[in-house]
Amino acid sequence: MMKADEKEAGKSIGLAWAASLVATALITLLASFWFQSASIMSGGAAGSQKLALLADMRMNLARSAEKEKSAVLSANDGDAAGFAEQSKAAASKVGRDQKKLEAVSEQSGSEKEKELVAKFGASWTELQQIDAGLLESAMQNTNVKALDLSSTIGAELQQKIDGNLAKLTAKVKPEWRKAQMEKIATDAKIAIRNIALFQTRHIDAAPEADKKALEASILAEQSKVSTALKSLEKMTGKKSRVYIREATTDFGEFMRVNAEITRLSTLNTNKRAAALSLGKKRKAEAECDRTLEALQKLAAKKP
Q1: Mind listing the pLDDT tens digit for each residue in 13-43?
Q2: Euclidean distance between CA atoms 118 and 135, whole angstroms
Q3: Quick check: 50 and 106 in contact, CB under 8 A?
Q4: Which of 132, 197, 248, 285 sits in a 20 to 30 Å window from 29, CA-based?
């Protein structure tokens, strides 16, 4: 059931990103087409200069957004950093052209144009502030790293514990005592599997309250494992004591790995970056583009 939910969630996010990337590409094409058609219709050096600046600003705004989304989707730190730098480079060009536009508008712009330029400036400042945190989070990939730790080192330690507990109970006599020890060992294995499951849910959870609740559940399962291992140690003969000691040592390492998993997961950078990209960033970017489009229409009307 959970796997189906996870697939549906992933599908929804994927569709949202696909739609966003298509919109970005359309904006780039429309901005280019707008400049070509409007520059033919409008005369005057000042008007053509404004149209050229506005077309470049819209295209670079779209490119910056496209590279930002690629950074958010990248699971590799190097790839994410590369896309983030490309996004910043395109945004820098928007900022450069914004200053040129402000200067040209101050000299020859109407009151309406100056109002729109100021409006873009405010929206652009907000967008830059959002991007600063968003791109930093995208490059950290803490949720991805946490999941990798859980599925590699965590899973390997779990297998080692299982193996040592199996060896511990394999040759126990009499049968009733073997059954008793196997029951305790099984309880420990189930509790460790529950911890691994809670780790995955912790990584996937967004609200802090949900993460705290899962951490409490992990502590409860840890207590069950510790109690089970202590009981097994008391019941184990000298020849088999090495197995319970190794299982106990490996469980201690498993919980140290768990601490790092929850630390990375609590930073939650992948979730935060995705939420910003599909939420506040998308709205601020759309507002910037709408204002630039309005400025294009205004510039195209002038003789």
Answers
A1: 454 554 455 455 454 444 444 444 444 344 4
A2: 26
A3: no
A4: 132
Choose among 290, 279, 288: nearest CA to 133: 279
User: How many other C-beta atoms can be found within 10 angstroms of the C-beta atom of residue 105?
Assistant: 21
Sign, CA dihedral 36-40-45-48, equals negative
pLDDT digits (tens, 9 = 90+) for 91-147: 999 999 999 999 999 998 999 999 999 999 999 999 999 999 999 999 999 999 999
Backbone angles phi, psi at 209, to 5 degrees: -60, -40
Q: What is the maximum span of the chain, computed from C-alpha positions, in angstroms?
A: 102
DSSP three-state, residue 43: coil
For the chain, what percentages of helix, strand and coil (3-state, to nearest 5) are there?
A: 90, 0, 10
Contact yes or no for 267/142 (Cβ under 8 A): yes
Of residues 194, 221, 203, the one with CA closest to residue 261:
203
What are 170-176's contacts with CB under 8 Å, separation 24+?
171/240, 172/240
Task: Return all residues near 286 (Cβ < 8 A) that are at least 6 apart.
Answer: none
CB of 192 closer than 8 Å to CB of 254: yes
Q: Give the C-alpha separation, 21 to 194, whole Å.
A: 39
Q: Does the global pTM surpass 0.90?
A: no
Beta strands in the chain (DSSP E): none
Number of helices and strands (H, E) in the chain?
Answer: 11, 0
Look at the chain and count its residues: 303
Q: Topology of domain 12-140+269-301, per CATH? A: Four Helix Bundle (Hemerythrin (Met), subunit A) (1.20.120)
